[in-house]
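Chain A, query sequence.
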Amino acid sequence: MVAWPALLPQEQFIGLSEKRQKATVRSSILIGEPNQRKRFSAVSRNITSPLTINGAERLVFDGFWISDLAEGVLTFTWEDPVTDVTVTFRFVSEPEFKLIAGGIPDERIWNVTLQLEILP
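Chain A, predicted structure.
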């Protein structure tokens, strides 16, 4: 399994949002309170993380996405934004890039939105 590239920002989690996978099932009954039970023994955590990179880092990211992760199919390791422990991530959807500053290609500034999940 590959790791998040060392040439990309490592702990840029400001603005991150996290939502745990729903791990319960509720079922209605005719009389009384609804039943509720666990669906899984472990759940994934969905992460939306903004990232700001320059043009040179964009090329590194593109290589990581296209070659190392097979267009986002494979998993990778990175630090958990809560515990700083190395965990396994997977992309939920394609990254979204927004150019925020122009210039020559290596100096352009990009905001990237990453939709990830941390696997149990």
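The mean pLDDT is 87. The two ends are 16 Å apart (CA to CA).
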